[in-house]
Design a protein that fits this description.
Elements: E1 3-7, H1 12-23, E2 27-32, H2 41-45, E3 53-56, H3 62-72, E4 76-79, H4 86-89, H5 93-114, E5 119-125, H6 148-167, E6 171-176, E7 179-180, H7 189-201, E8 208-210, E9 216-217, E10 220-221, H8 222-234, E11 240-243, E12 249-250, H9 251-261, E13 266-269, E14 276-279, E15 285-289, H10 307-313, H11 321-339
Parallel strand pairs: 1-2, 1-4, 2-3, 4-5, 5-6, 6-11, 7-10, 8-15
Antiparallel strand pairs: 9-12, 13-14, 14-15
Helix pairs in contact: 1-8, 3-5, 5-6, 7-9, 7-11, 9-11
This protein binds NADP nicotinamide-adenine-dinucleotide phosphate and ligand G4F.
Residues 84, 86-87, 125-127, 177-178, 187-190, 192, 210-212, 215, 217, 251, 293, 295, 298-299 line the site of ligand G4F.
C-alpha cells in the first residue's frame, strides 16, 4: 500500500485528491494547520473524512515538517498547502511568501535529508504567467508574476526545478490554471458568484458586488485536475506540465451564465465602477462594481495550452465551461434550500 502525504488537506484540491488516492488504494495522510476548529467539511462532503490519517503540519515550521515526513516515510508528497488567495496576498505579502514560497523549500530540504527517493508534487499556478508574454501559455512561456502570491509560487516552482536538476530528485510541478467546483472557497470569484446567485434567487441576498468584470480566466473542473497531479507523479521521469482547458472566458460571462442557470437574464448598463447588471425581467439591480475588489496589479488574461499533458500524460479536460457553471449553481441552489429548511 503506497503512502501519500497531502498538505492543504482541508482545501478544495486536498479533498478531491484524497478521494482519488483512496480510490486507488493509497494510505492517505492529511496535513492540516492547527486552528481552533479543524474544518473537515469538504472531506465530509466527499465522504472521505474518516478514511484519512490526520497530521498537524505548519508550513512555516521546518522542524514540524521534518519530523512529520520522517515519521510517516511517505512514498509521495503533494504540496497543496498555500496562502492561495491572490487578493489577500497584497495585504499579507510576507506571510504569503513564508508559507507559499518557503513552505515548499522546507519540504524539499526535509525530503533531501530524510529520503531523496520520495516523489514530490508542487502546486504551481497559471498566476505565474501574470502579464502574459504569449498566448496560449505553455511550459516554455516566460513568467511575469503580478502579485506577492504569484511571485511566491514562482519561487516555489523554480526551487522545485532546481532541486530536481541539482540532486536528481523526483520532483514535479503542475502549472494548473484556475479550477473550480462546488468545494471552491467562497472568496474566489466563481464560488462567490454561484453562492450569491443562489441566495439572491431564494431572497436571502439583494445583490452581488464584484471587481474587475473583464478579466479572463481559463476555468476547468477541479476533480479532473487532481487526476493530472497523480499522473505526473506516476511517470518514469519527473517534469512540469500545464493543466488547462485551452478556453478563456471573462468574469462577466461567468456571472451572466450563473444567473441564467437560476432563470435570471442579466442586462448591463454604465461603465467602470458605475456599471450595473440588472434583471432583464424586473429591472432590479443584481450586480454592482466596487473598487475594493480590484487588485493593485491585475492578471487580465489567461489561456493555457495543455498539449504536453495530453501527449505525455494522456490527460485532457472533459467538463465544459457551461457544464462547470451549471454544476456550481445547481449545487449552491440545493445548499441554500437545505440551509434554510433547518
Ligand atoms: P485552498 O482551497 O485555498 O486550500 C489551501 C490549503 O492550504 C488549505 O487546506 C489551507 O488550510 C492550507 N494552508 C494555508 N496556510 C497554511 C499553512 N501555513 N500551513 C499549512 N497549510 C496551510 O486551495 P486549492 O484551490 O485547494 O488549491 C490547492 C493548491 O493549488 C494551492 O497551493 C493553490 O495555491 C494552488 N493552485 C490552485 C489553483 C486553483 O485554481 N484552485 C490553481 C493553481 C494553483 P486552511 O483550510 O486551514 O486555510
Ligand atoms: O477567483 P479569483 O480570486 O482567482 P485568481 O486570482 O485567478 O486566483 C485563483 O486561481 C489561480 C490560478 O490562476 C490560483 F493560483 C490561485 O490560488 C486562485 O485559486 O479571481 C479571478 C478574477 C481576477 O481577475 C479578479 O480580479 O476575478 C476577478 N474578480 C472580479 N471580482 C474577482 C472579484 N475576484 C474575487 N476573488 N472577488 C471578486 O469580487
Amino acid at each position: 500500500m503506497k503512502k501519500a502525504l497531502i498538505t492543504g488537506i482541508t482545501g478544495q484540491d486536498g479533498a478531491y485528491l484524497s478521494r482519488l488516492l483512496l480510490e486507488k488504494g493509497y494510505e492517505v495522510y492529511g496535513a492540516f494547520r492547527r486552528t481552533s476548529d479543524l474544518h473537515l467539511n469538504k472531506l465530509k462532503f466527499l465522504k472521505v473524512a474518516d478514511k484519512i490519517k490526520y497530521v498537524p503540519l505548519e508550513l512555516h515550521e521546518f522542524t514540524n515538517i521534518y519530523r512529520t515526513i520522517e515519521k510517516i516515510q511517505p512514498d509521495e508528497i503533494y504540496n497543496l498547502g498555500a496562502q492561495s488567495f491572490v487578493a489577500v496576498s497584497f495585504e499579507i505579502p510576507i506571510f504569503t511568501a513564508d508559507v507559499t514560497a518557503l513552505g515548499a523549500l522546507r519540504i524539499l530540504e526535509a525530503i533531501r535529508d530524510i529520503n531523496p527517493k520520495i516523489k514530490f508534487y508542487q502546486a504551481s499556478s497559471s498566476e505565474m504567467f501574470g502579464r502574459v508574454q504569449e498566448t496560449p501559455q505553455n511550459e516554455k512561456t516566460p513568467f511575469y508574476p503580478r502579485s506577492p502570491y504569484a511571485a511566491s509560487k514562482l519561487f516555489a516552482h523554480w526551487i522545485t526545478v532546481n532541486y530536481r536538476e541539482s540532486y536528481g530528485m523526483f520532483l514535479c510541478s503542475g502549472i494548473l490554471f484556475n479550477h473550480e467546483s462546488p468545494l471552491r472557497g467562497f472568496e474566489f470569484v466563481t464560488r462567490k458568484t454561484t453562492h450569491s446567485v443562489a441566495r439572491i434567487k431564494y431572497g436571502f441576498q439583494d445583490k452581488i458586488i464584484l471587481g474587475n468584470l473583464d478579466s479572463r480566466r481559463d476555468w476547468g473542473y477541479a476533480p479532473e485536475y487532481v487526476e493530472a497531479m497523480w499522473l505526473m507523479i506516476q511517470q518514469d521521469k519527473p517534469d512540469d506540465y500545464v493543466i488547462a482547458t485551452g478556453e478563456t472566458h471573462s468574469v462577466r460571462e461567468f456571472v451572466e451564465l450563473a444567473f441564467k442557470n437560476a432563470g435570471i437574464d442579466i442586462v448591463w448598463s454604465g461603465k467602470g465602477v458605475d456599471e450595473k447588471g440588472k434583471d432583464k425581467a424586473s429591472g432590479r439591480i443584481l450586480i454592482q462594481v466596487a473598487p475594493e475588489f480590484f487588485r493593485p496589479a491585475e492578471v487580465d488574461f489567461l489561456m493555457g495550452d495543455y498539449s504536453k499533458a495530453k501527449e505525455k500524460l494522456g490527460w485532457s479536460p472533459k467538463t465544459t465551461f457551461k457544464e462547470l457553471v451549471r454544476i456550481m449553481v445547481e449545487h449552491d441552489l440545493v445548499l441554500i434550500q437545505k440551509e434554510n429548511q433547518r
